[in-house]
Amino acid sequence: MNPFTAPASGTTFEKELFPSGAQIAVLYSMVHCGNQEQGGQFPGVKDTMRFTFESPTELRQFKEGEAEKPMVIGCKFTRSMNEKAGLRKMIEGISGKAFANDKEASSYDFRNLLGKACMINVVHEPSKDGSKTYANIKSFMPIPKGFPSPMAINPLVSYSPLMHDAEAFAMMPEWLQDEIKLSPEFIAMMEAEMNGPIPTPPVNPLSNERTEVAPVSFDEEKKAAKPKKEVEAKVDDLPSSFFDGAETLEY
After folding, report:
1. What is the C-alpha separation between 98 and 113, in angstroms, rounded?
2. The whole model's pTM is what?
3. CB-neighbour burial class of residue 210 (10 A; exposed 0-12, middle 13-18, buried 19+)
4. How many helices (H) and strands (E) does the chain have?
5. Phi–psi pair at 75, nearest 5 degrees
6. Is 93 helix (H, G, I), strand (E, B) or coil?
7. What gap in Å lies between CA 222 and CA 217, rounded to an integer?
8. How many CB atoms within 10 Å of residue 11?
């Protein structure tokens, strides 16, 4: 067989929309995408998070010869826990409990929800020009009492370019990897890997607590450091080193 030729025909699987209506889903992936240029109703550069849910009952064969896998649906939010933010509403909806105040909300670690089952309401909506139809999650609720809570079928994934994990990154689809690679956070991480150890982030990127710190390359850091004194200088004189909703981005 010539590996530099390819068949012109074969088994193909048409893309199927995630079913509409209220249904049980499991949150199996949460990815911090970093700062991304966004369009839509509120354009601009925004720090974003993507959450992906799987259906334990809607299983499909996506490739010939492979076992059935759960259908999945995702939503994307600005990484903000403001009282009106879509991310905060999602978390409160899944847990069934509102945050007492902004301080409690800003310290919440999103990974507490990883692998958790909930109810989602999915609506099929046309694009503005009517040429396409999208499946969008419109609301989240906790599993009703007495209902079984299914386990995730897909491997659980949490990732941030500020806490780079090559294994977790490799588990993501290629289109999502490409999106993350465009973020300044990922670019700074790659530069740090080439120039020296990856700096430790000052906060957990998978919660809303953070300190705004501009990325600094290893070369810039060396230039900024104070020069060493003559041989007779004391050790104490030497410098120290560097640390580190429907259209509102939700869909």
Report:
1. 15
2. 0.74
3. middle
4. 6, 6
5. -145, 150
6. helix
7. 9
8. 8
DSSP-based three-state secondary structure for 250: coil
Neighbour-count burial of 20, counting CB atoms closer than 10 A to its CB (0-12 exposed, 13-18 middle, 19+ buried): middle
CA 159 to chain centre: 6
Which three-class secondary structure state does DSSP give residue 222? Answer: helix
Q: How far is CA 213 from the centre of its chain?
A: 20
Task: Annotate 164-195 with b (16+ C-beta within 10 A) or e (fewer).
Answer: beeebbebbeeebeebbeebebbebbebbeee
Give the number of other Cβ atoms within 10 Å of residue 4's Cβ: 4
**Cα–Cα nearest to 161, from 196, 195, 206:** 206
Helices (H), ranges, the chain = 86-95, 102-106, 166-170, 174-181, 184-195, 218-224
Residue 83, token pair as written in the block? 């009282």
One digit per residue, the tens of pLDDT, for the chain of length 251 reads: 565 555 555 555 567 999 999 999 999 999 999 999 987 777 899 999 999 999 999 999 998 899 999 999 999 999 999 999 999 999 999 999 999 999 999 999 999 999 999 999 999 999 989 999 999 999 999 999 999 999 999 999 999 999 999 999 999 999 999 999 999 999 999 999 888 765 555 566 777 655 444 544 445 544 555 554 443 434 344 343 333 333 334 43
Q: DSSP letter string over 30-83?
A: EEEEEEEEE-TTS-EEEEEEEEEEEEEEEEE--STTSPPEEEEEEEEEES---T
Q: Among positive and negative, which fits the CA dihedral 44, 50, 53, 54?
A: positive
